[in-house]
């Protein structure tokens, strides 16, 4: 157990250093990270869902994911979004024409959208850096504090049929911690935006926990403990970014909503979220 814990800590620190360095530099460095995460998620999804055994569906899936990753790398997010819609539509067509698993289009969208939304949130400007750091702070505070508060307080289970270990006390504690972390970060980065940060943090925390439950459902559905063994001591990429994915999706929707309310064009997710 001690050896496993050491391995988990070391690999976690290395991953955190890579992610934070790429986030700080932004640009092509972060787009590489986003594209790789998307591709690895598709690899894990296709493996645990059995899509990898259907060579037609899997070939189409990999071609589509490679195209999306390339467009993310060169920063063409509009074409990447169009490709994502097209690839997902092809996945649906394969269900009808080829008898492919219904999990193919879900996985295509889930993996492709992850890389695209991550890169779009970070973008290449300072508001993008702030937005990405905000999302990380909210998701990490949710994950860490939900675990410790849930263990300390116990109580009724949140979703016992999906994830027996999660409790309502942990969920509420994680959400409160996320709001606190988001507000503190924004207070130092963008004084005056604390109220909108609190609202955004609460929404992102709830969505992050929903993403965690979604992946638990997927793993329970296919009878696997971890999405893969790519990360020593941690399992797979999906195991580490499940909450982050849903939080990023919700950040995108929030940014669009805030832009709509203000009547302005959404130039950057960071700018839309915090009014920059």
List keywords for this structure.
276 residues; 79% helix; cell membrane; phospholipid metabolism; 2 domains; mainly alpha; two-stranded antiparallel ribbon
Total helix count?
Answer: 10
Give Rg in angstroms: 19 Å
Mean pLDDT: 89
By helix and strand content, what is the structural category? Answer: mainly alpha
Strand order across the largest sheet: 1-2
What is the helical fraction, as a range of percent? over 70%
What portion of residues belong to β-strands?
under 5%
Order of helices and strands: HHHHHHEEHHHH
**What does the overall shape look like?**
globular
Oligomer: single chain
Which stretches of 5+ consecutive residues score pLDDT under 50? none
The figure for the number of domains is: 2
Counting DSSP E segments of at least 2 residues, the number of strands comes to: 2
End-to-end distance, in Å?
48 Å
InterPro entries: PC_trans
Protein name: Phosphatidate cytidylyltransferase
Catalytic activity: a 1,2-diacyl-sn-glycero-3-phosphate + CTP + H(+) = a CDP-1,2-diacyl-sn-glycerol + diphosphate
Enzyme class: transferase
């Amino acid at each position: 157990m001690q050896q496993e814990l050491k391995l988990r800590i070391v690999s976690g620190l290395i991953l955190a250093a890579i992610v934070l360095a790429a986030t700080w530099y932004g640009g092509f460095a972060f787009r590489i990270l986003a594209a790789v995460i998307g591709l690895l998620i598709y690899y894990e999804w296709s493996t645990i869902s059995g899509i990898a055994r259907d060579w037609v569906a899997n070939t189409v899936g990999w071609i589509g994911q490679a195209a999306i990753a390339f467009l993310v790398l060169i920063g063409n997010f509009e074409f990447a979004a169009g490709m994502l819609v097209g690839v997902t539509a092809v996945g649906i067509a394969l269900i009808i024409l080829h008898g492919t698993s219904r999990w193919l289009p879900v996985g295509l969208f889930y993996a492709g959208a992850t890389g695209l939304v991550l890169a779009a949130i970070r973008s290449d400007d300072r508001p993008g850096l702030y937005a990405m750091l905000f999302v990380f702070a909210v998701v990490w505070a949710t994950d860490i504090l939900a675990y410790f508060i849930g263990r300390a307080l116990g109580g009724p289970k949140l979703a016992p049929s999906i994830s027996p270990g999660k409790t309502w006390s942990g969920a509420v504690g994680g959400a409160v911690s996320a709001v606190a972390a988001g507000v503190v970060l924004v207070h130092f980065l963008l004084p005056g935006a604390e109220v909108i940060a609190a609202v955004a943090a609460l929404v992102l925390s709830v969505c992050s926990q929903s993403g965690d439950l979604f992946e638990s459902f997927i793993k329970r559905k296919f009878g696997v403990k971890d999405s893969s063994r790519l990360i020593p001591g941690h399992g797979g990429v999906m195991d580490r970014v499940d909450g982050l994915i849903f939080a990023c999706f919700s950040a995108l929707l929030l940014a669009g909503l805030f832009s709509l309310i203000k009547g302005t064009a959404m130039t950057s997710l960071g700018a839309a979220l915090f009014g920059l």
